[in-house]
Amino acid sequence: MKKSLEKLLNKPLPADPFLPQKVVITDVEELAPEHKKFTFSFLEPSSCERWNHIPGQFVMLTVPKAGEIPISICSSPTRKGVIELTVRKVGRKTEVLHSLGPGSVVALRGPYGNGFPIGIMENHNVLIIAGGLGIAPLRSLIWYILDRRHLFKEVYLLYGTRNYSSVLYKDELSRLKERKDIKCLYILDRLETPEDEEWSQGREGLITDLIPEVSLEPKETYVAVCGPPIAYKFIGKELLKNGYPESQIFVSLERKMECGIGKCGHCQIGYKFACVDGPIFPLWDTKNLPEMI
Amino acid sequence: MEFHIDRAKVLPKANVWEFLEGLKRRFKLIAPVKEGEKCSYKEISDVTTVELSYTRTVLPPKKYLLPYRRERFSYNPETMEFKTFNSIQEQVIFGVHSCDLHGISILDSVYLKENPDPRYLEVRKKTILIGLSCYPDEYCFCLSTGTAFPDGANWDLFLTDIGADYFVSIGSPKGDEIVLTLKNLFREIEKEDLELYKRSTRKKKEAFNRKELPDLERISQLIELEYDSPVWEEEAKKCLGCGTCTNVCPTCFCYTSVDIPDLEGKEVKRVEFVTSCQYPYYSLVAGGHYFKPTRTSRFRHRYYHKFVGFPYQVEKLGCVGCGRCSSECPAEISIVRTIKKLRGTDEKELREAVK
């Protein structure tokens, strides 16, 4: 018997990583049509204290009777006590979740995935690029950075979405615009109403149009990107054109996940698993891994 | 180590049935049984039905470690109280060929290295593996994958046919204990037995048709280099997308999980089913984006995962050369032929091309 294999079999039984923990929904906020932000609290205070995550990680949420879904955490680890998840109603499971209100008991396990490399991002500029629902996992990063503002240099947030009514976290993002320690540039696909016009300050087009407006030293900057799969190719190209180094651009990828811990195989991207090797990958990986974006 | 002369024993063929009877008394005995033309692993009630010389079973012994439908836990949807099931019996899987032993070792690495799955570990701890030597047929290519012999895999006893007897190598304390409890059936090893053992190893090597074996040297690099090769599309055209190749594979581990409520909605069971990367919805995400949209991309993915993914994850090829995917494929797609085509060395094809 091989030594390494013998070791594997002689392990004691670990705690079951598939068993979720009970949580209660404490608040539901409607952000935009079909989009709701759920706030969860653990029923046991000890689990609440133990909970710690890195921006960019996700949880596996059990929706009673419907099944399990992977959802990115949109709350910052610097704000303890609650977990927030923003969920778009796209299928059966999320539909059941959307029908639940405060007080409902659900269950979740995690956090899973690698998260953004916040350690190495410190002492650098940070450029955050969000497209549509991609703002959700990045909200965790934004608040993490703003709560530890002294650790980072310049911070930019670029956010593009369809129109004003589909903007998520409207109040929060408006308040961010007024802050001096983060520069926010918002853009909308099409300006149709005065609200649209006001929100994006007349900027109409794609999120890639905002990249040349950023005045940061690319070599000193880490970039965090999250958006629909189609956007990555164009955002990546534009970032490279503007001189941002490939190894400093991090993208968050979406895949089907059923276990979250590298066992079910659905989230394979080339030879990697999005759940354990990702979902945050450096752009450099997209060159080596087929079918990545 | 496991071939050390003090450790190995000899089991005369005449004692095999008694040996199996002895195993059956203590454990749930699983062994290959002939059913029509083909063999399959079954729980044994009559030891004389056990098939001792077979080439391959339809499904690998993986089905007794990772059942094709398994219940993870159940919960009450109101209170979200979880209940896990524990009814794991000690079992012995007898007659496992070397390639399948390697297959199980690969599953061990996948399930136990990172984020170990406690249920798999429990089943695995309660499973005794007894290997059996074999000879290849036209589909086998375990000599290329380095899995023709049990060295390096995880097993308790391994029986090598040396003519009138079986040469029994002992691979673990559990295996040793079995030999001890049934020690009157075994005899000590003699010098002659060692000679016969070496001859049997040689005979197996010679039984392969070397010209037909695929060249798997730097296969990961080949698959990466030929990622855009037209061969994928050519082969995928024949593919029916039925998923047979992944279901019969001893190393495929993908599953899908579903929550199934009972009729009153009081209890929900989370059930896991084996799935296949060959099915279109395999990589479908919410919102309707397919990451492997075409049959070609799914077909290629299987090879990519076997020859690039597994080496990255567990430092071994994900293919053990058992030949099941080729022998069971209804469209007669052969993994060996695909590899040869990718290398540009399929002689028959080349000959036809010259014509």
UniProtKB/TrEMBL annotation, chain A:
Keyword Iron: yes
Matching SUPFAM superfamilies: Ferredoxin reductase-like, C-terminal NADP-linked domain (SSF52343), Riboflavin synthase domain-like (SSF63380)
Residue ranges constituting the FAD-binding FR-type domain according to the UniProt record: 18-118
Superkingdom: Bacteria
GO MF annotations, alphabetized: 2 iron, 2 sulfur cluster binding; flavin adenine dinucleotide binding; metal ion binding; oxidoreductase activity
GO biological process: pyrimidine nucleotide biosynthetic process
Needed co-factor(s): [2Fe-2S] cluster
Positions of [2Fe-2S] cluster binding: C259, C264, C267, C275
Keyword presence, Ion transport: no
A family per Pfam: FAD_binding_6
Cofactor details (free text): Binds 1 [2Fe-2S] cluster per subunit.
Keywords: 2Fe-2S, Iron, Iron-sulfur, Metal-binding
Protein name in the entry: Sulfhydrogenase gamma subunit
UniProtKB/TrEMBL annotation, chain B:
Single GO term (MF): iron-sulfur cluster binding
Pfam families, A to Z: Fer4_22
Matches recorded under PANTHER family: ANAEROBIC SULFITE REDUCTASE SUBUNIT A (PTHR40447:SF1)
Keywords (A to Z) from UniProt: Iron, Iron-sulfur, Metal-binding
Superkingdom of the organism of origin: Bacteria
Stated name of the protein: Sulfhydrogenase beta subunit
Species of origin: Thermovibrio guaymasensis
Domain (4Fe-4S ferredoxin-type) ranges: 228-260, 310-339
Lineage: Bacteria, Pseudomonadati, Aquificota, Aquificia, Desulfurobacteriales
